[in-house]
Structure formats: structure tokens, C-alpha cells
Amino acid sequence: MILIACDLDNTLIRGRPQEGDVPVEYSGERVVTYMSRRTLEIIANLNGRIVLVPATSRSIEQYRRIKVFQEYAPVYAIVSGGGVILQNGEIDGAWDGRRKNVVDSTRGEFERVFRLLQNDVRVERTKIIDDAFIFAKSASAQRVIDSLKRDAISFSILRHNEKIYVLPPGIDKGAALAEVKRRLVPSCVAAAGDSVLDIPLLNGADYALVPSREIAAKIKAPHILVNPETADFSVFVMEFAARL
Ligand SMILES: [Mg+2]
Asked: How far is the CA of 194 from the centre of ligand 1 (A)?
């Protein structure tokens, strides 16, 4: 069995549609994200040999909005940045117990970071995602991070454009992937992702698929494949998985 662990936003789905894309997520009447028709076709036709595991920093609620994963429900999904594993759509109790232990053992630091972000005027909004990690948004994200570092934050701080993610040690997509691997015992693992949050996920795979050389330079999987500039990244990823 082949396991393919895929980030969602800007890997399998996107906010800005390209020609022929299919809407896959709505907020009321408004379309939030799209998927390429070809990618959707491959996902719809996956046989049991290839197991797709979505791996996202989205909250459980945001993940559940994506209707393609209601229709083609994956057995496992990694959500909340790895803090939560969904098994057949429901929160996996064993993994959730681990999340609670990790967060409870660092509760003081968790609350300190959250307060620092709440009190920083440069931060537009901050919230705790599924009691797994802290998210913040700021037009001065790097400066906010520099301040956190001066406050000797021991958590890992990651930035993706204006978004800031502060994760307690042990909460990341790679740790959750290791757990899913332990349970499914795949013969081969491929992973795809576009941001620094995906590095632990990509490092846990035999084949790491990335959209650019920039992210490729930051990972150390046995095989690294960079999306050709002319190709749609999600199609590149799913066609590669289907050929494995
Ligand atoms: Mg992404």
C-alpha cells in the first residue's frame, strides 16, 4: 500500500481558480477554494492501493468544510497542524490524548505566548486552533516573530507570508504522519506540501513533492521532486502518486 500525505491549501486546493477548476469549499454561497478537475478525477478513482491522507493546518471545522473529503472520505486525515488525527472523520481518541498531554505539559508557555500575541498591536488577530497551536495574522509578521524570540519563546515559530504559527514541541504534521505510518505500515510514503509547516511532513516521506527549489532546499527526504513550472502542482502530485 502506498501512502500519500498531502497538504491542502496551495497543494491540493487553491483560493484562486484556474480555468476548469471545480469549487470544493463554500462559506455560505461564496466559493472559498477550488480543485483542479484532473486532480479531483484522480482522487475519485483512487483504489485501495493508494491511500490519500490530507495533512493540513486547518482547524477541524475548516477541514470539514471541504466537500470533496466528505464525498471521498479518507480513512485518516491530519488536521490542526498535526495536533489532531481524524479517523473516518472522527477525532482519534488515542492521538487526542497525546495532544492533551503535550499541551497541558506546556500550558504556562502556551498561555504566555497567546497573551503576548493578543497584546501586540501589530497583530490583527490571533486564536488557538483546536487547543493544539496558536495562530496569528500580521502585516508585520517577521517583526512580531522577532519580538517573540526576544521573549525567549521555547515553542517553534513558523511564518507563511502574513500568517504566524506557534507550535508546542511535538505538535507538527510529521509527528502525526509517523503515527499514521505506524498504523497503516505502507510500503512507500509520498508527501506533498508548499510551506515551512510541511517540512516535518516532507521529511517523513520516501518521496517529497514540492512546488519550488526554495522549499526543496529546506528538506532532506531520500527523493525530492520539484514541480515543473509548467505543471499544475496538485496534478503533478496526484499523477505521481497514481504511478507509484
Ligand atoms: Mg499549503
From this structure: 5
66 Cα to the center of ligand 1, angstroms: 15
The predicted model scores a pTM of 0.95
Residue 187: CATH number of its domain: 3.40.50.1000
CA of 195 to the centre of ligand 1 (A): 6
Sign, CA dihedral 206-210-215-216, equals positive
Kindly state whether residues 14 and 88 are assigned to the same domain.
Answer: yes
Residues with Cβ within 8 Å of 13's Cβ and at least 6 positions away in sequence, in order, are: 24, 25, 33, 34, 35, 66, 234
**Residue for cell digits 526543496?**
216
State in Å: Cα 96 to ligand 1 middle. 23
The parent domain of residue 138 ranges over 107-167
99 Cα–ligand 1 center, Å? 22
Q: pLDDT tens digit string along 117-176?
A: 999 999 999 999 999 999 999 999 999 999 999 987 889 999 999 999 999 999 999 999
Mean pLDDT of 186-201: 97
pLDDT score for 48 = 85
Same domain? 10 vs 87: yes
Structural domain ending residue among the three candidates 167, 193, 214: 167
